[in-house]
Model the fold of this input.
Amino acid sequence: MRLVFLGPPGAGKGTMALLLQERYKVKHLSSGDLLREAVRDGTPAGRQIEKRMGQGLLVPDDLVERLVLEHIEALGGERSFVLDGFPRTVEQARVLDEILSEKGHAPISRAIDFQASSETVIARLDGRRVCGACGANYHIVRLVPRREGVCDRCGEELQTRPDDSRETVLKRLAVYQSQSDPLLEFYRRQGKLRVISGELDVEPQYDALMVLLRQEELVSR
Done:
């Protein structure tokens, strides 16, 4: 099972990917997490990434591709994974397909579009909290940690992402919407595109995802 999760920020992609990773040992590869890791390392590329992410702008395609594809190659040819936040463009999707084919790796199984309104996205991201240590996602309403402000997994303090401010979220939505239709069409033409509601709460959304994956015979019943 090799999945691409599409949809605007805050539609549930990261949360669903983490749940699949926990319950099915599917590797969650988040382009955002990989980019933030580069920022934490303080490399020249990381400083460039930090500036662009803070402005709600996309990171250059070649840098994102290199980070993600290096991690995919390290997994081997058959390891299941979920790509969250990559590809963002048709060109990235083509490069991904080409690399998997050239390496003799299993192809992308399905692309799942998590559809959510701008109002929902803004409300979700305004309440999102993340763990800077392990990358776990929480929400002050939807996904509350057992101890307020503390990660359930590693016990570190939760933070608000700088790119979750309302102004930056609106920019991110505008960028996503400008590029989403061609990418969705790319996977639709391959017969791989499926849709999940991004308006659902966590458990109903996960249930809907599992129904879809079982129907597609990507997970056992």
Q: What stands out?
A: The beta strands are 2-6, 27-30, 81-84, 110-115, 128-131, 137-139, 158-159, 193-197. Residues 166-189 form the longest helix (24 residues). The chain is about 50% helix and 15% strand. The helical segments are 13-24, 31-41, 44-54, 61-75, 90-102, 118-126, 166-189, 202-215.
